[in-house]
Write a structure and sequence with these properties.
Strand content: under 5%
Low-confidence stretches: 31-35
Order of helices and strands: HHH
Largest sheet: none
Number of strands: 0
Number of domains: 2
Mean pLDDT: 76
Structural class: mainly alpha
Radius of gyration: 21 Å
Helix content: 25-40%
């Protein structure tokens, strides 16, 4: 098997600063803007995001995932929309 030369791509650039997961979770709200249909883009301000963890039956998870896939959205977007409709600001 002599004679076969294998070449490797360029060495990836080094990361300047390691990512601190806790810092990212704490400060990611600066990257997320509110998405309310009645608020213009000029009025939209970053809103702090809080994580919600809940346990649901596997059958419900599958149903939500199927619905999200059918609508072409992520599960989190589908669930945020449902929660916003029920618990969002009352007009």
């Amino acid at each position: 098997m002599a004679g076969k030369k294998v070449s490797f791509g360029r060495k990836p650039g080094t990361v300047e600063k390691p990512v601190d997961i806790e810092e990212w979770v704490t400060n990611r709200e600066a990257l997320v803007e509110t998405e309310h249909p009645l608020v213009s883009e000029a009025e939209a301000k970053p809103e702090k995001i809080k994580r919600l963890t809940l346990d649901i039956p596997e059958s419900l998870h599958k149903a939500i995932k199927l619905k999200a896939t059918t609508e072409g959205v992520t599960m989190v977007d589908l669930l945020r929309e449902l929660l916003e409709e029920h618990y969002g600001p009352q007009n």
